[in-house]
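== Sequence entry ==
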Amino acid sequence: MEYSPQDELLIEAKWQELAEACRKAKVCRRDGDWEFIKRAFFLAKEAHKGVRRRSGEPYIIHPIEVALIAVREIGLGKKSVVAALLHDVVEDTEYTVEDISRIFTPKIASMVDGLTKMSGVFNADKSEQAEYFRKVLLTLSDDVRVIIIKIADRLHNMRTLGSMPHNKQIKITSETIYLFVPLAYRLGLHAIKSELEDLCMKYRFPVEYAEIKRKIDETEPERQQYIDRFMAPIRAVLDRNGFQYEMTARVKSVYSIWNKMRRKEIPFEEVYDLFAIRIVFKALPFPSEKTQCWQIYSNITDIYTPKPDRLRDWISIPKSNGYEALHSTVMGPDGIWVEVQVRTERMDDIAERGFAAHWKYKHASITQEEDGLDRWLKKVRDALNSPTENALEFLDNFKLALYKSDVVVFTPKGESQSLPYGASVLDFAYEIHTKIGDHAIGAKINHRIMPVTTLLNSGDQVEVITAENAHPKAEWLDVVVTSKARQSIQDYLKREREDNINYGMELLRSRLEEYNVTLSGRVLRKLMPAYECRNKDELYSKIGAGIISLDNLDRLLKENSSRKILKFWKLFIPGSESAQQADEDDDIDLDDEAASLDDAVAQEEGRGDAPEFVMAECCEPIPGDNVVGYRDKQRGVIVVHKSTCDTLIKLATQFGENIVKEEIKWSHEKAVSYLASVEIRGIDRPGIILDLTRLITADFSINMRTINVHSHDGIFEGTIRLYVKDIVSLNALLDNIRKIKGMESVKRLLNT
């Protein structure tokens, strides 16, 4: 199919836009560079002829847009532009990597290959998406530009996501928030990171996004007046001291505001740090950039009083992604705290364009941030080259490598080691050497003996204590935050678990033979819930490790297993069999154990082909929550998660094809009880727990499953797990709990 005249006009306009961007960015520095780019464009245009995106525009527009992002928003060069234009050619057309190598160069071919999705059929037990990400990320070992172009590709896909169906939106936004957002942050692409976060929110939570956007726009005039008033005296003093600078106000992203509202359980009106002031100045040859930043800081604090605990010096010790700046929070007019950021033009370039700008200044000077970037890249390469064959583990471990490193500790010899925030002694031990980590039993931190689980602070001097008979423990996985430590522990536990599984299976089989019972699926289905195991491997492993005793095996084999099916608010897919009315004759068992939604399903017996729904234990959705269905092919059920669930994001990233295409809806039937978790905190007083329990059980007639409250220094805090009918009744209860004298904070736990 040929391009229409309208298509040609659209393509030509976009091509000229790219040409202008390349000219401004001085991408073409040698004779023949532009011809090189033109050759890539015409090949891509011809290869994608007749193909349209879901939005209806010619497909060639997409690679041009990706190239535009690479040039205009990131600052990449000629080879990156060519790779961006060709990034889908091998995947979607008859051209091969060898063709690209012959027509262009082996380097371009290598970049395009890294950007090409994997094809073919994968094992059903594996994640095709994880395998794809693994291949793409492995190119990081060779060329960082491949990943940066991939981020540009993802950004344009996100900008045009509105034309995709709902399940695809869930899949793509989950991938983005799980992997691409932290990756963009780690490579220093802060502007792109923020836009990706906002776009994810726009499509996942459109109502909340629109509401916050509206409120930001409505408060703009009032906010601008305050900013002008705040800036005026600073401008005066900087002008007087001869600084060449640009001062702007940066409003928080919608996602950042929403995240803070969720985290702190506050309305939009109580988010006071909606903006920050940024000062970007032209540095003089002398004195040092660091000294000039502190001079400006001194000028500002002569006018406004700083908040001592909110000073962030990322000039002396830059972030591992190369970010340099001086951040301070000062008390502005009307008693409002305002954050002020001070950076040079060079620092600003690196802050906005990240790794791409880092290479721009690489030959100008050898700086600490360059070393930090290089050290991080080496760690990532080590993680990428780990021997694990499991793509899902690989993806999790890589994501760990994206954490920001802002804890600097020292060896006994005074050598510095940069670790992620929240790192423990174990992380430090594994960073030194795997064997030291495997045999660690403690550490001397600043000459004091401390356990291996101790979290480290910047400036700590750490000496690891080891013992030959010490070995990694499963609970260590809850402590470590680095990919190297996690991978090493997992490798050891995997070997140990395999041994336990084999031993446990043989032990169970021999015990069953004593009762003339054959090990079978029917027997396992009876034993797994009895021993609180989710699968047979867990059962075998616990038996092999001695955690499970088989002394009561004969009694369990004689018990009749019966499954209690509950009827409650139904979940259904509009238009499917499950949308029909349920049998009104089914009995409802309100027994506390039966009412637990840990294993409840929304399908009654005899419902034909209606899908079976299971409530996710990780987020405990209740009627009224926005939910998303995930098809668990092994169990043959649809697991229902809240749309905000972190586990759902991970699943959609790794197994996006299993997201149920249609939206899952709640019906309007009478409900029995759903488990919900509530966190409370306040000022302790005699009788407050009595008031709380009376309100829940007497006034609202709600059953509590557990209550765990402790008091210290006049403050109490704790959690309550209770059964509620829906989100409306839960919110009504929370509103009334907040009215109890002494209660300071009441919120539903989003993930338990």
Remarks:
- Residues 491-558 form one domain.
- Residues 91 and 116 are 6 Å apart (CA to CA).
- The first strand starts at residue 245 and ends at 251.
- The radius of gyration is 29 Å.
